[in-house]
Amino acid sequence: MAPPHDGPPKVRQHPAWLVKIIEAKRRAFDSLSDAEKAEALDVQKERRQRVRAKRAASLSLATQIFKLHDAGHTADEIAAIVGRRTISVRQFAAARGVFISRSTLLIRHGVTLSREGEDALRRMAADYGKTAAEALDDWLTFSLDDDAAVARRVLRVARRANTDQPQPLLMRRITR
Questions:
Q1: Residues of the domain holding 71
Q2: Total structural domains within the chain
Q3: What are phi and psi of 94, to 5 degrees?
Q4: 172 in helix, strand or coil?
Q5: With the C-alpha atoms ordered 50, 55, 60, 62, is the resulting torsion angle positive or negative?
Q6: Do 83 and 151 fall within a single domain?
C-alpha cells in the first residue's frame, strides 16, 4: 500500500453556498482600486502581526504562571508576581486545564490510581466508615506526619542528615 502523500494533493470540495461566498469576496476585492488593495493588504499584515504578538504574550504568560505554580506558589503569590488579579490567573490556568488553588492547605499534586488501587481504596473507606476522599486524606496525613516517619519506615527510606556525605537510601531491617 502506497503512502497517502504519493501523488498530487486532493482537490478540496466545498459546498455550493461556500463557493458562492468565496467568489463574491474575490470579486469584491478585485473591484477595489490599486491603492485600496494595497491599504487592505497592509491592514491584513498589521492584523496578523497583532495576533502573533498577542499569541506570543499569552504563551509567555502561561510559561511564567505554570513555572511559578510548579515551584509551589499559590494563586495570590503568582498574581502578585505577574501583575494580574488572582481570579484572572486562576481563570487563565483553568482555561488551559490546570487548577491553581488560593489555599496553601490543598494538595498540589494528583496521583493516578489503577482501577485495582481505586477499588482497594473504596473498600478500605467503606470499612473505615468514610468516603474515599476522607479515607485517603486521613491515610496521607497519618503516613506523612512527623516528617513522614511511618512512610519512611514502611518503605525503608532513611532520612539524610547531611547531604554532603552519601548515605544508603534503604534502612536496615529493624529486629525486635
A1: 16-95
A2: 2
A3: -65, -35
A4: coil
A5: positive
A6: no
